[in-house]
Specification:
Length: 324
């Protein structure tokens, strides 16, 4: 019986089909059907591994056999390998909102007016800081019968729960020390004219006040009083500053005392009365007529000097240039 002529062409035709099957499909990409080809002739879309844009990590797999011919190994025809299953990857969880550092400013008229208000505003403008403030003019630790700072500080700490307390006060303390109202019957007045007794009693008040402010886990940033333009007052402040600085030093790592005199004096120690403020082209007056308080320009100037000290204690970076 004569062989059909087409049988002679089969050995040539099968390798050609095999070459097409192996060369026409990439293992690392899903086949793209021709838009003019019927879908029944294309590899089903369900067999394609998802791409990373679909939220999965696609694993490289060998191509599945096509209608053009089987996949042939060293020993001849073989079963196709199991298709790789892409492992789903959960989308990243949104980053939790960072809790801001809470700061509380306490003090006398310097905290109650321009400087305190501007420092509070600058700290509040920082994305990582939330600031509160309580100031009382003419107050200090010398006259708890006028304003009881230990009691007021406790109320503020309970209300605000800060991690850092900034204090600026003492300019009104160069006078006799009176006992607190609760102790007025058994307490005694300590005269400013008795320096040793006054310093000892004032140090006790400072130690008690700082202990209450620091508590178990808070830090205290005590701002030394800036240089004043009245000689008689400046003489008193030298004693007050020294007692305050020694008391803050006793807190160790939880207390920091900032000497602000260099912020408001010239290189030769004279009172600085003018300075360029917030990009001003000309120097602006920074001290009021009493040479004790600051002008609004001076309040901003002083706040800009203190701000880096506060951020350093908090361990946060300064706001980018141009930020509020």
């Amino acid at each position: 019986m004569a062989r059909h002529p087409m049988n002679r062409t089969r050995p040539w035709f099968r390798p050609l089909a095999l070459g097409f099957a192996l060369g026409g499909c990439r293992a690392d990409a899903a086949p793209v059907p021709d838009t003019e080809t019927p879908t029944s002739a294309a590899t089903p879309a369900a067999d394609a591994a998802p791409t990373p844009e679909e939220g999965t990590l696609a694993k490289t797999a060998d191509p599945k056999p096509t209608e053009a011919g089987p996949i042939v190994g060293q020993g001849g025809a073989a079963d196709p390998p199991e298709p790789a299953i892409a492992e789903p990857v959960a989308p990243p969880e949104p980053e939790a909102r960072k809790t801001p550092h809470k700061v509380l400013i306490l003090g006398d008229s310097l905290a109650a007016t321009g400087f305190g208000a501007l420092l509070e505003r600058k700290l509040d403008a920082h994305a990582d800081v939330e600031c509160f403030r309580k100031g009382k003019s003419a107050s200090g630790l010398a006259r708890p019968d006028f304003f009881d700072w230990p009691a007021e500080a406790k109320r503020q700490l309970d209300l605000r729960k800060p991690e850092l307390v900034i204090v600026i006060m003492g300019g009104n303390d160069g006078q006799d020390l009176t006992p607190a109202k609760a102790q007025s019957k058994k307490g005694k007045r300590v005269s400013w004219a008795d320096p040793e007794a006054w310093k000892a009693d004032y140090r006790v008040r400072m130690d008690d006040f700082l202990a209450a402010l620091a508590g178990d886990d808070r830090k205290v940033l005590w701002l030394g009083l800036p240089t004043m333009g009245m000689k008689s007052l400046e003489t008193k402040l030298e004693t007050i500053r020294q007692v305050q600085q020694d008391a803050v030093a006793a807190l160790g790592d939880r207390g920091r005392y900032v000497d602000t005199a260099p912020f408001v004096t010239t290189d030769d120690g004279a009172l600085l009365t003018e300075a360029k403020v917030a990009g001003s082209k000309k120097a602006q007056p920074i001290r009021a007529e009493d040479r004790i308080h600051f002008t609004m320009s001076g309040s901003e100037y002083f706040a800009d000097k203190v701000l880096p000290e506060v951020l350093s204690v908090l361990g946060v970076e300064a706001a980018p240039s141009g930020a509020p």
